[in-house]
Each structure stands twice: as C-alpha cells, then as structure tokens.
Fold each of these.
Amino acid sequence: MGPQIGRVALGWAAFLVLASVILLFTLTPGTPEFVVTLFTLCLGLLLGLIVVALVVVTRRREKHEGGQ
C-alpha cells in the first residue's frame, strides 16, 4: 500500500467518524437516520483500523527485510 493511498483512506475514515459522531448528537435514537449514522460510524472505525493494521504490517515487513 502506497503512502498516498494510506493517507487518503485514513482521511476518509476520519471524515466518516467525525461526521457520524457529530450527527449522532443531533439525531433521535431509534430513527432510521440514527441507525444508518451508527452504521457509518462503525464502517469508519473499521476502515481506520484496517489502514492502521496495514501500516503496522508494512513497516514491520520493511524493517524485517531491511535487517537481513
């Protein structure tokens, strides 16, 4: 994964999480909009975790291959 792709994906994840959190404060629990926003928050968090995990794995691999 290139650095630019990681930055863009992390930016999208941050946007999804931030927008969802702000919207959750304005929506009424139990409405369809609330459920969709909660789902979007989960997707943003999942995307962020995937990007961070891929960055960690890539750095470890580069460090391991560079040490040989």
Amino acid sequence: MIRHVVSWKLAAEDAGERAEQAAEVARRLNALDGVVPQLRSISAGANVAYPDANWDVTLVADVDSLAALEEYQVHPAHEEVVAYVRSVVASRVAVDFEV
C-alpha cells in the first residue's frame, strides 16, 4: 500500500482568509471519499497550531499501489479539487511511501 502525504502553504497573507481557504481545501479533499475508487482512505485537515511555522493544510491518503495513485491523480473529481487548490496555494510538498 502507498501512503500519499501532501502539505500546502497557502498564498493569502490575511490569516482569516488563509484559514477559510485551508478549511475549504480540506473539505473538498475529504469529499473525495467514496467518489474516487482508488482511495482506500483519505483524511485532510487545516492546521490548528503554530500558524507561523506549520503548513496550512495536509492530506493523508492511502491507495493500493503506485498505479492506483496515478489513477487517483487523473480522476476527474480529483482534478476538480486540484484546480481549486492551485488557485490558493503558494507552495506544496509531498511524500509517497510504502506502508
């Protein structure tokens, strides 16, 4: 199984706006549960501590294989979420590892 972990720093300078966007990113990602068949599990959440040091929102998703991860990446529902995420993100970091 592959665990896909992604964190984002959002571009908004206003803390309130950034918090709203982080919550919306998490909401949209969590809504993929049951929609994208390759996902075994998905959990996304907005940061709740140390906003000056931590990233703003993180995703943890499990899929069966690298092939399933690639299928998830191009699923139309995921691509719709990605379009929103890209509109509010300044930077992204990701790690994919076997569990």
